[in-house]
Amino acid sequence: MRLFTPEDAPAVHAYLSREDVCQYLLHSPRTLEQVQTKLADYAQRTQLVKDQDFLQLAVEHQESQSVIGEMVVALRSTANQTAELGWVYHPDQHGNGYASEAARALLALGFETIGLHRIIAELAPENTSSVRLCTRLGMRKEAHFVRDLLVDGEWEDTGVFALLREEWNAARPGPSM
């Protein structure tokens, strides 16, 4: 994972311009110009210090060095030591474990480096791939809000999954004896 660069725009546009990818996002498919504008903004966001700070990171395939998706970690509340985790990947990369690997790295950053108490993921409950990812990460389902979010003129449900630092620590393998 790394910060985005302007050169990433075509690869990001390749998935963010797709209806099937944006089906569970809070925006419609994006033009190349919209992607370029967003990437310029993301490149300026390099700290997790205050509420609403976020890192939007490119996920790069190790061998091909091409952008295959993105991860976001956002500080929701410094007072409550809470952050939110999110992800978007090109459909061609689904099922390869890349989202799990990147999400675990961001969970480690949040809990072990930053010292967060809680990390959540908010998603469309019908997004079964993301629900399965949350479960693989050890996150528990905490809520299902019915028709609570207006997206493009339509009311949608929101699912909330969460993981506490002590749950993260308990799930990690201890030192071998």
Question: Could you explain the architecture of this structure?
Answer:
With 177 residues, this protein is α+β, with helices and mostly antiparallel strands. The chain is built from 6 helices and 7 strands. The protein has a 7-stranded mixed sheet with strand order 1-2-3-4-5-7-6, with helices on both faces. The chain starts with a strand and ends in a 6-residue tail after the last helix.
- The total beta strand count reads 7
Give the CA-CA distance, first to last residue.
33 Å
Query: Number of DSSP helices?
Result: 6
Along the chain, the helix and strand elements come as EHHHEEEHEHEEH
Strand content: 25-35%
- Output the strand order for the largest sheet: 1-2-3-4-5-7-6
Mean pLDDT: 93
- So what's the overall shape? globular
Portion in helices = 25-40%
Unreliable spans: none
Radius of gyration over all CA atoms, rounded: 16 Å
Q: Which structural class do you get from the secondary structure elements?
A: alpha+beta
Please outline the helices and strands.
Layout: E1 2-3, H1 9-16, H2 19-22, H3 32-44, E2 54-60, E3 67-77, E4 82-89, H4 98-114, E5 118-123, H5 128-136, E6 140-151, E7 154-164, H6 165-171
Helix pairs in contact: 1-3
Compact summary:
The chain has 177 residues and is of the alpha+beta class.
Question: What descriptors fit this protein?
Answer:
7-stranded mixed beta sheet, 6 helices, single chain, 177 residues, 7 strands, alpha+beta
